[in-house]
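Researcher: Can you fold this with NAP in place?
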Amino acid sequence: MTGVLVTGGTGKTGSALVELLRGNGVPARVASRRPAAGDPDAVRFDWNDPATHSAALRGVDRVFLVPPIDTVDPMPLVGPFLAEAEHRGVRRVALLGSAIVLPNAPSALELAAQVRARPGWVVLRAAGFMQNFLRPHPVGERIRRHGEIRTAAGDGRVGWIDARDIAAAAAALLTGSGIEPRDPRDYLLTGPKALSYRDAAAIISAHTGRPVRVVTIGADEQAAGYRAAGMPAEFAAALAAVEVGIRAGREDRVSTAVLDLTGRSPRTFAEFAQEHATEWTANGPFER
Ligand SMILES: NC(=O)c1ccc[n+]([C@@H]2O[C@H](COP(=O)([O-])OP(=O)(O)OC[C@H]3O[C@@H](n4cnc5c(N)ncnc54)[C@H](OP(=O)(O)O)[C@@H]3O)[C@@H](O)[C@H]2O)c1
């Protein structure tokens, strides 16, 4: 099949991308550890089972690449996959990378460098997802249960982006006709405005009518919380350390890439909050 293999095809960005591609008549193969029985274009794919990689790549000419989540070292699993994709003549890979550089995680930087090094392959450096404020993400879980955000990021701002706008940018890049040598190989994807957790909490409060408190904690305490939510220790520590960088202003930036690629402005946090207001309040008041 000439079309797009969407890894992470059941996730927040991947599922939105599949919808956009299929809506535009582009065949999309949904990769998942548990492929949907009713979808003839769903394929079993598990990063931890390299035997599933070849079948997923067979016949596709483009790949949306969501690397293994919850790890600081994706290269051992993704490196051979990239080599096979190249060998099979995949002409475009769009890597879902991150604007935030995890400390002590050179493997993620190496992965982005390997993608950028191949002509026509591109890296999407996405800012923090607005969907982190929804369950099942620990931030969203805590807002729902306790009306509270605990953060080590202080008043540092992030260019929060709706995952659906990442999908729209990816769709544009994966369906664009030609690949010009002068095309960028790296896109910083953000929402329209950088916001602190306090700003975001105020917007959620305004749309739910319920106060959301922001409690400042230390990075160690944050890491312990992430571990308690089930994250591997190394990854939890890295994510908590990222907040220290946010506090220092490292993620306080926005780009015009979504507009440039899709012709549409990215969704604002207020639009996101309005759309999801009932998800923060569905079962009555916050449990304090
Ligand atoms: N959250 C953020 O703020 C943020 C910011 C920038 C970049 N990112 C990046 O965005 C990506 C998605 O993150 P997310 O947490 O939001 O995830 P998500 O959209 O909820 O999706 C996770 C996806 O990964 C798939 N998956 C999980 N384990 C897998 C495995 N062993 N083999 C194959 N597929 C597997 C899942 O598919 P199945 O369960 O169906 O197998 C699912 O489709 C991550 O790479 C993350 O680094 C996130």
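Model: Folded with NAP in place. The pocket of NAP is lined by residues 8-14, 32-34, 45-48, 66-69, 96, 98, 126, 128-129, 132 (CB under 6 Å).
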